[in-house]
What we know:
Elements: E1 2-6, H1 10-20, E2 28-32, H2 38-46, E3 57-60, H3 64-70, E4 73-76, H4 83-88, E5 95-98, H5 105-111, E6 116-122, E7 131-136, H6 168-176, E8 179-184, H7 189-197, H8 199-216, H9 222-242, H10 247-252, H11 258-268, H12 271-289
Parallel strand pairs: 1-2, 1-4, 2-3, 4-5, 5-6, 7-8
Antiparallel strand pairs: 6-7
Bound molecules: NADP nicotinamide-adenine-dinucleotide phosphate.
Amino acid sequence: MTLGFLGSGNMAAAMARGWAGADSPPAEMLFTDRGSGRAAGLAEELAGGPAGGADLSTEALGDNAELAARSDLLILGCKPADLERVASGAQVSSAVLSLLGATPVARVAEHFPEAAVYRVMPNLAVELRRGVLCLATNEAPAGDAVAGGGADSGGGGTAGIREGAVRRGDLIELLGQLGRVHELPESNLDAATAVMGCSPAYLDLFVDALAGGGVIDGGLDPGLARQLTLEAFEGSLALIASRKPGEVRRAVASPGGSTEAGLRALEENGFAEVAAGAVRASLERMRGAG
Ligand SMILES: NC(=O)c1ccc[n+]([C@@H]2O[C@H](COP(=O)([O-])OP(=O)(O)OC[C@H]3O[C@@H](n4cnc5c(N)ncnc54)[C@H](OP(=O)(O)O)[C@@H]3O)[C@@H](O)[C@H]2O)c1
C-alpha cells in the first residue's frame, strides 16, 4: 500500500516512524510539506525501514497533486486551517484519512467528494507503536465492511469510491500497527482528543515538575531525578491499570506518611481542578475552531 502524507509535521512524522518500524510496513510512503524541507528529511530518515532493509520505499514530492494521484491513502497531516487550500490542489478518488483536529469528517468530505473519507485522532506515542487512536465511526462509506466489531458504524455514503480504495477494515488493521484503536462516535472525538491527544504533553510537564522538585528541594542530580520519575511512572501506570480507581494511591499513602503529605499538598493546591481545567480549555479551543 502507498501512504501519502500531505504535511510532514510532528504527527505525520510520528505515524510514519511508527509504520516504518512495524512488522509489516507499508510498501511505500510519500511526503509533502509547504517548503520547510521536513518531507525530504523524513523520506531520507525512513528510507529502507529502520533496519536498513529495502522493504520500504520513501520519497518526498514537490506537489500535492502528484502525492494524491500516487497514494492509496492520502493522510491529511496539515493544520485544519489549511484544508481548503490543500484540497484544491490534491484531488483524490481513493481514500483520505484526516488527522485534522476539531474538523468534522463531513467538512473534509465536502472537499474530497470522490473519496472514502475517514477521521482519526492519534496521539504522539504512535511513533513507538504505543499510541491511542480514536477512529470516528459514523463516516463509514456505504457498503463498506466494518472490522473490529465497532458499534454505530453506519453512516453517510460516499459516492464514486475507486475500486480498491482502502476499506475501513484495512484501515483499522493499518492503524492497529501504531497502537490501540478505539472506534468512537464522531460526537465524542473532541472530548477524547482533550484527554488522549493532549496527554503526552501534560505528562511531559508533570514529569518535569516532579523531577524538578527532587532537584530543587532534594538536591538530586537533574538527570537522575528525571530517570527515576520516568521509571516510576512507567511501572505505576501499569499498576494503576491493573487496580480499581483510587486503589493505588490508598495503598501508597499510609496514614501520617510522606505520600499522604504530598497528596494533601496537591489537593490543597487544586490539582484535580487544574487537570480538569486543562481538558476544559482544550475543548473550548476546539469548539472555538469548529
Ligand atoms: N501534534 C499532535 O500531537 C497532534 C495530535 C492529534 C492530531 N493532530 C493533528 O495533526 C495535524 C498536524 O499537526 P502537527 O502537530 O503535526 O502540525 P505541524 O507540525 O505544524 O505540521 C503541519 C504540516 O503541514 C504542512 N503543510 C501545511 N500546508 C501544506 C501544503 N499546502 N502542502 C503540503 N504540506 C503542507 C507543513 O509544512 P511545513 O513543514 O513546510 O511547514 C507541516 O509539515 C493537525 O491538524 C492537528 O490537529 C496533531
